[in-house]
Amino acid sequence: MAWRALQLSRWPGALAVIAALALVLVALGAVILRAEPGRGLGPADWAAIRFTVVQAALSALISAGLAVPLARALARRDFPGRRWLITLLGAPFLLPVIVAVMGLLAIFGRNGWVNTALAATGLEPVSIYGIQGVVLAHVFFNVPLATRLLLQGWQDIPAEEFRLAAQLRFTKRDLFRHLELPMLSRVLPGAAGLVFVICLTSFAVALILGGGPRATTIELAIYQAFRFEFDLGRAALLSLVQIVVALGACLALFRLLPLHDPGQGLDRVVARWDRSAWDMPVILLGAAFLLLPMLAVLGQGASGLFSMPDAVWWATLRSLIVALSSAALLMLLALPIATLSLRHNAVEAIGFLGLATSPLMIGTGLFIVIFPIADPQAMALLVTVIVNAVMALPFALRILVPGLRQAVDAHGRLAASLGLRGARLWRIVLLPRLRRPLGFALGLGAALSMGDLGVIALFADPARGTLPLQIEQLLAAYRVEAAASASLLLTLCSFSLFWVFDHWGRRGA
Amino acid sequence: MKYLAIGTALLAGAAAAETPVLTIYTYDSFVSDWGPGPAIEKAFEETCGCDLQFVGAGDGAALLARLRLEGARSDADIVLGLDTNLTAAAKETGLFAPHAVDASFDLPIEWSDDTFVPYDWGYFAFVHNADLNAPVSFKDLAQSDLKVVIQDPRSSTPGLGLLMWVKAAYGDEAPGIWDSLSDNVLTVTKGWSEAYGLFLEGEADMVLSYTTSPAYHLIAEEDPSKAAAAFEEGHYLQVEVAAKLAASDQSDLADQFLAFMVTDAFQSVIPTTNWMYPAVTPEGGLPEGFDTLVQPGKALLLSAEDAANLRDEALTEWLGALSN
Amino acid sequence: MLELDGCVFGNGGFRLAADWALDAGARCAVLGPSGAGKSTLLAGIAGFADQVSGTVRADGQALPPVPQHRPVAMLFQDHNLFPHLTVAQNVGLGLRPSLKLTAAERARVADALGQVGLAGLEARKPAELSGGQQSRAAIARLLVMARPVMLLDEPFSALGPAQRTDMLRLVVEVAAKVSASVIMVTHNPEEARALAGLVSFVDGGVASVPAPVEDFFARPPQALRDYIG
């Protein structure tokens, strides 16, 4: 294998894995050690676990299912503005939760466009509140991510295979079966697994749109154990359940992932002869579903954008610094782990640990560890940087691993024969070949960190908080308009960060 | 050179010792730029010759959780922002010291507690648009087609307040009330902000908030379009309190602050920053606009002990009624 | 009979003109410097490149614009086999893309594999074959496809000289069996000789009228002399 020829070191990967593991395990361990005997899991907890798994599974299936036609249509259609549309379609995933929910409500809410239209035609209104709303919101968040991952898969199918398919007179069904299905079987489980884990720890969305305590998720049960009962043991137990479900799902999916050697297709323009009249309607529908709620939000905050209090601008600056540092740290963790996972597939599952662990638990655990040593508030931004990087790890890995595998397979032997090793190998061969996924992963990491509330209130210093925290405070002080403007600013920042990195990657590739 | 260094260090140490630091843990919105924190810090520092430092720690429940995690090693001298649903649990920790404040509180109920000093209070209420023909009781609400947004008692202070409100008003009949209300509950949110946001977006007819909420719209935005519904059962009170920590290394200063807390300098800041009623009405009275607020006929409040004892039962009833 | 009637093919900004015809069963090697447009010629005939002007006809019928509908079978430089399908499946695709083969069709596949010397390797995946065996499998598929025009775009360039000659012989054999014309791009004059047919030289945006290979090498164009050196 080229892998062996290159003599890629395992040590950096092992260290990064240990660092990511340590963060989660130390936090969990601290909570468990600090816990007093409490009551175990009751029937209500099991109901929460059931609901969580069901909604996450539904969200994952539907998100992945909808992403297939959308990515397929985008993969085989070229039209003016396609690049822009693809970038824009990624936006919902980067939106702060509360902003996105308000956007969805503007479309699907009781006074939303859909219900207004239904009422005008004399039809019964539809309700967004209930499990359908939870799934709708999760689908809205995650279709963009799944679409991007699948689109990458489609673009990785060598152009020659499509020509060969045309030669062989493949029907659309044959083409799907012989070219697209093998690709999907490689890419889809990973994408669906990622969405599943994201939805596992969902909390605010499930509550706002869930319509009541039927929609109790594990994360809410952890919240309850922690602050309603101060039962740290139960909180830790629930947290473990969450991790076990997430890792179990991931490992099952990784077992399903066949090790496939992607061909070394030449990067010609992928011309295809299987376009469908449905492609453009699918693209338009997808764009409408993903972009209309965003438009609705953008309209709300624009007027007050330049009359916000200074504190908001300072918070923005702090958030930008946190986002960039977090993205840098993310790469330091993700590249070595991705390298290691070329050898040991299951390593990638470790990346999911951070995402699968309740942020409340990580925050509480780190607080218990840090408090005796240092002032937690002085460490707030640092801890936010670290936690955000670990949370974004699974996304970065999913994006980087296929590209890295391809680069090593395609150019590993040549690089080895030229004696390229270590840092030089990365600088001259691997990083340039990885530019496109690298840009995507960096952009995603920075944008997610920008919009994330990060560590819970225990660390936060409201006077030196980040932009999302500032928005919460504005809302808590009835400043709805200023909060809308600050949300718009946050959205613009997240999106700009993503755009800058993503375009850097796509321009060079 | 060496002596100079030691001398400088000593001087610096002495200077630091001259300005004692009083650390107060409170909830985030108290210390934010739009909360009472900045004005109160300024006012107290003018008189105390000290450095007052507010530390924001989430909301009331997170505040207590943080104290429990820190235990006696906490830097906090005072905790400000617990309410009567939390005081029993707070007292149980043994972390708090008795106070020496003597004031005539303008609360709708008798207040006598040797540990916790109230600084403001408010009534929970359902806020609606003024043009709505609002219900006059929980039963009236249950019979209407109106949709309300409430907060989850497991993650939100007002949510827990509503639980106690129904329990205090209806006792053993509370499950039946929740049953009849379940089709009026549009959704349940994590915290107050989300719920209030949904209401302002027009998603719901009413939202669980405070009788003082319309005052914000009236005074800060000159918008008289919001009102709170007066319920015949009476309204549950939220009394927000502060207390001194037994392990405080600034015990005198902490006492001084608690005393300051019930003076006009503190109390006059509260109405238009925290949007609650001051615990001791300042000499100048309440700001203009507060007179327009609805005045409940009856104030409900469970004692700290009752609230603690009834909490789990009330939660189970609530979960049972709304999960069907 | 394959006619390129005043054809100009476009690939991006590049243009290639060809105006000649090939008899049924004729074999033509396409020689020319790198980047001269050899592959564009094949892509134009197969329908992958834009038809800027002119018409491609087979047996007097203008070919439809869609590649799927052209009576053409092509071998590429690489990616001629799907890595996740077995050898038999890869050949079977030439008969039925759905892979729902009848017993008779399965027998044809086995027979074709036997004719190219791959009997017994039906169940192997491409990765388990040598480079030469992979080429044989692709040729077996040409056999079962039995299209009147075969286009070869340097499909054997990764093989050694001896193997390359073997493969060419095999292609000639297969083409003869199905009476197909063969057009093969190569950069190697020896291969053009081995194909033993006509030669078209591509240079300056034009594919020259095919000439018999002996005549061609007896009076090579100046550009070819520069090219071979």
Brief synopsis:
Chain A: It holds the Pfam family BPD_transp_1. Chain A contains 22 helices and no strands.
Description:
The complex is a heterotrimer of chains A (509), B (324) and C (229). Chain A has 509 residues and is mainly α. Chain A folds into 2 domains: 1-34 and 305-509, Orthogonal Bundle (MetI-like fold); 39-156 and 200-234 and 274-299, MetI-like fold (Orthogonal Bundle). Chain A has helices at 2-6, 11-34, 43-76, 82-89, 91-94, 97-108, 113-120, 131-156, 159-167, 172-200, 204-210, 218-228, 232-256, 279-301, 310-343, 347-356, 359-370, 380-417, 422-433, 435-451, 467-476, 480-508. The two termini of chain A are 25 Å apart. Chain B folds into 2 domains: 2-121 and 238-291, 3-Layer(aba) Sandwich (D-Maltodextrin-Binding Protein, domain 2); 122-236 and 292-323, D-Maltodextrin-Binding Protein, domain 2, CATH 3.40.190.10. Chain B is globular, with a radius of gyration of 21 Å. In chain B, strands 1, 2, 3, 4, 5, 6, 7, 8, 9, 10, 11 and 12 form a 12-stranded mixed β-sheet that branches. With 229 residues, chain C is of the alpha/beta class. Chain C has a domain at 81-144. In chain C, strands 1, 2, 3, 4, 5, 6, 7, 8, 9, 10 and 11 form an 11-stranded mixed β-sheet that branches. Chain C is globular and about 50 Å long. Chains A and B meet through helix 6, helix 11, helix 12, helix 17 and helix 21 of A and helix 2, helix 4, strand 7, helix 9 and helix 10 of B.
